[in-house]
């Protein structure tokens, strides 16, 4: 069984090592995550591990209950205060001992969040996925099986026959087929239309309409 706690720890270690090789200019570039630079995506990962629940609630009150707006505000504020190297140090420390909301989120949802945001950065920089395929498969299994109030991947996958071309993974359904690399499938299910051109099958148009 692919344990989510061990998978998250191993992935965070690998992610931190990869991120050390990103330049200052690359951190400043836009990510695939709407409205965020790569630097702000990194800040979001730190917030997910360490921000106090009260800080999230206060920000949501300022934004009429919008979690997305609060999330954006918190990420931008932290990125303005902490450089990428500092944030990476924070991320490594918090991965070992989460605080605040980082102690509440299910590990499998955090793994999906971290993998998707890594892809937001690396794909935006014109690089391929460096996430091990078994890790992406674990994320895909969570996406299609576990309802997520923040990322409606299961709703996007509903009724579609999904097939990974680089892994022994599929999601069987009676509807049209979508095939492609596991990381591209996961990225699209997470709401990133960037990878749609890399997918094929008669279900791609349906999946595109659900973005």
Describe what you observe in this structure.
The protein is mainly alpha-helical and 211 residues long. The protein folds into 2 domains: 6-125, no CATH class; 133-209, 2-Layer Sandwich (Nonspecific Lipid-transfer Protein, Chain A), CATH 3.30.1050. The protein has 11 helices and 3 strands. The protein has helices spanning 4-19, 24-27, 38-50, 53-62, 67-81, 84-96, 107-124, 133-145, 153-157, 182-189, 204-209; strands spanning 161-164, 170-171, 177-180. The chain has a 3-stranded mixed β-sheet with strand order 2-1-3. A hairpin with a 5-residue loop joins β1 and β2 (170-171). α3 (38-50) runs antiparallel to α7. The longest helix has 18 residues, at 107-124. It is globular, with a radius of gyration of 17 Å. The model has no long low-confidence stretch (mean pLDDT 93). GO terms for molecular function: metal ion binding. Pfam families: MDMPI_N. InterPro entries: DinB/YfiT-like, Maleyloyr_isom, MDMPI_metal-binding.
Q: What helical percentage do the residues reach?
A: 55-70%
Tally the beta strands: 3
Task: Report the portion of residues in β strands.
Answer: under 5%
* Average pLDDT taken over every residue: 93
Pattern of helices and strands: HHHHHHHHHEEEHH
Shape: globular
Count of spatially separate domains = 2
Largest sheet: 3 strands, mixed
């Amino acid at each position: 069984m692919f344990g989510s706690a061990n998978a998250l720890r191993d992935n965070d270690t690998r992610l931190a090592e990869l991120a050390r090789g990103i330049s200052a200019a690359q951190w400043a570039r836009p990510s695939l995550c709407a409205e965020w630079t790569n630097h702000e995506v990194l800040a979001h990962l730190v917030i997910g591990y360490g921000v106090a629940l009260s800080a999230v609630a206060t920000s949501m009150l300022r934004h009429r209950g919008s979690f997305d707006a609060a999330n954006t505000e918190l990420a931008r504020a932290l990125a303005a205060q902490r450089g990428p190297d500092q944030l990476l140090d924070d991320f490594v420390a918090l991965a070992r001992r989460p605080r605040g909301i980082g102690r509440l989120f299910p590990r499998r949802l955090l793994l999906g969040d971290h993998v998707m945001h890594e892809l937001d950065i690396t794909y935006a920089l014109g690089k391929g996925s460096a996430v091990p395929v078994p890790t992406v498969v674990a994320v895909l299994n969570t996406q299609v099986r576990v309802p997520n109030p923040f990322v409606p991947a299961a709703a996007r996958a509903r009724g579609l026959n999904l097939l990974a071309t680089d892994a022994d993974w599929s999601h069987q359904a009676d509807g049209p087929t979508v095939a492609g690399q596991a990381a591209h499938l996961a990225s699209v299910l997470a709401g990133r239309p960037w990878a749609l051109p890399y997918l094929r099958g008669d279900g791609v148009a349906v999946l595109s309409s659900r973005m």
